[in-house]
Automatic annotation (TrEMBL):
Pfam families: PG_binding_1. InterPro entries: Peptidoglycan-bd-like (IPR002477), PGBD-like_sf (IPR036365), PGBDSf (IPR036366). It comes from Streptomyces aurantiacus JA 4570. Residues 4-50 form the Peptidoglycan binding-like domain. Gene3D superfamilies: PGBD-like superfamily/PGBD. This is Peptidoglycan binding-like domain-containing protein. Coiled coil: none annotated.
């Protein structure tokens, strides 16, 4: 479930989602993903696939693992 954890961190840090980072892809995570998909202009189906991964921004981290405060594209 590390992928869900990374997705939730990205939704919280880069899209301002107010969801728990609980490593569970539940209704709140799906709703936040759909909102992020709409924001980046892709189909808001709530399915995290290659298009979402490529289109969304993700937290950037320093080498020590600390969040830089910036969100970037992969």
């Amino acid at each position: 479930m590390l992928g869900v954890h990374a997705l939730q961190l990205g939704l919280v840090r880069c899209y301002g989602a107010r969801i728990s980072i609980d490593m569970k892809f539940g209704p709140a995570t799906k709703k936040a993903l759909r909102a992020a998909q709409r924001k980046v202009g892709i189909r808001d189906d709530g399915i995290f696939g290659p298009t979402s991964n490529y289109s969304m921004r993700w937290p950037e981290y320093y080498d020590n693992g600390q969040f830089t405060g910036r969100c970037i594209r992969n």
